[in-house]
Amino acid sequence: MNLFTYIFLISLFAGILVQWLLVYKHSSCILKNRSNVPDAFSDKISIEAHQKAADYTRAKVKLGLVELIVGSIIIVLWTIGGGLELLDNLWRAYEMSEIITGTIMILSVFAIMAILDLPISLFKIFKLEQSFGFNKMTTKIFFQDLLKSTLMGLVIGTPLILLVLWIMKSSGDYWWVYVWLTWLSFSLLMMWAYPAFIAPFFNKFRELENDELKTRIENLLTRNGFKSNGIFIMDGSTRSTHGNAYFTGLGANKRIVFFDTLIDELSYDEIEAVLAHELGHFKCNHIRKRILLLAIIFFIGLGILGWLINQAWFFNGLGVTQASTYIALLLFLIASPAFTFFLQPFFSFISRQHEFEADDFAAGQAQTENLISALVNLYRENANTLTPDPLYSAFHDSHPPAPIRIEHLKNKFA
To answer: What is the β-pairing status of strands 255-259 and 231-234?
Structure first.
């Protein structure tokens, strides 16, 4: 162990402590307000639905805290506990090339972490979600999805890892710039390919057949100059009762996707308002801004890794005695969340601002009352709490809290 070891451990456990305090405040705030529906929602959400949302949210955040603690223990075992060193020595014994050894090593670590994550994933779906009436997934579908995602990860991930490790090995001191360009190109390719080639591997999609709703949506898109490759309904009800809608894809391969559960829950006016909100993200250039932000973050991160890869204290401080390109990459991926946790409020703030902007756009395209009604229905059906703790929300919520979001719409378009 060295000084970096202690810095790593302090940062890791500081994150756990802050997270625990946030969960405590959030859970206490929800429990304190559990008995009364906020005035702004009293005529739209019943006390039973409000209490269900309170209990569901508290159960989720407590499970999330357990997940964080277990994940942190696993991180320590991989690093200071010698897990990476042990597994690396096992694969090195086969005397393969460094690139092949590294690829197998990275895939092995991902596989082990997925297996370790399995009990919590099963509990989350078949205990927590099931107990609140949201789960529709069977064990057969769960393991089919797991098998499909594993195969997809191998088919897509293996060539990518091989390419990245080859670049790291053969491109000199500025290898990280070429890796960054590779990551950026790969990300854009996946955004383009996802709706047509990846998503249908997991879910069934059918084109929207309701002529009246389809005409309304097409008119909305035409007025805003948005061209899509189709309007589709996804079989979300086979896995959950939660409803959602989203844009996906890139360029000419963009699609509009509604969960079938959302179609069943909302009126045509409300569906149009939800779609206008999603369209607002496109019109306000949020997708481009997020891609740019991620590109900057990855550029900085890979630049830091480009420096760390030559520092012996980085390897030794995280429990590794034999340095290599692939071990440096693994250590960075595993250890970096301990240092980036405190940046989370910044990213949450940006996301919430984007949601406000998309709401403003939607309210200008459809009647504000329809958007408010749609949001309230979604809060109720998805059991989103109406009384979050402000500090917890600042850290974690990508969307503005329900009371603030509704009040914003009422004040802006009164």
So the answer is: parallel
Greatest Cα pair distance in the chain: 71
Residues 6+ apart with CB under 8 A from 135: 125, 126, 129, 239, 240
Q: Which of 129, 265, 359, 360 is catalytic?
A: 359
Active site residue 407: no
Of the candidates 14, 16, 33, which has an alpha carbon nearest to the alpha carbon of residue 390? 33
Given this model, what pLDDT does residue 414 score? Answer: 57
* Tokens 């990846």 sit on residue: 198
* Predicted confidence (pLDDT) per residue in 60-115, tens digit: 999 999 999 999 999 999 999 999 999 999 999 998 999 999 999 999 999 999 99
Q: Quick one: which of 363, 382, 383 has its CA closest to 371? A: 363
CB 325 within 8 A of CB 165: yes
DSSP-assigned letter for residue 319: T
Asked if 278 is an active-site residue, the reply is yes
- Residue 328 to residue 310: CA distance in whole angstroms: 9
pLDDT in tens, 192-223: 888 888 989 899 999 888 888 888 888 888 88
Which ranges in 171-210 belong to alpha helices (H)? Answer: 175-193
C-alpha span between 192 and 158 (Å, rounded): 20
| Catalytic position from the list 88, 278, 355, 381 | 278
Q: What is the pTM of this model?
A: 0.90
For the segment 136-149, the average pLDDT, to the nearest whole number, is 94
CA dihedral 64, 52, 373, 285 (to 10 degrees): 0
Report which of 364, 367, 361, 379 is spatially closest to residue 265, judged by C-alpha positions: 379
DSSP category for residue 255: E
Cα 204 to Cα 74: distance, rounded to the nearest angstrom: 35
Task: Encode burial over 230-241: b for 16+ CB neighbours within 10 A, e otherwise.
Answer: ebbbbebbebbb
- Expressed in angstroms, the distance from the first to the final Cα of the chain is 61
Mean pLDDT of all residues belonging to the chain: 91
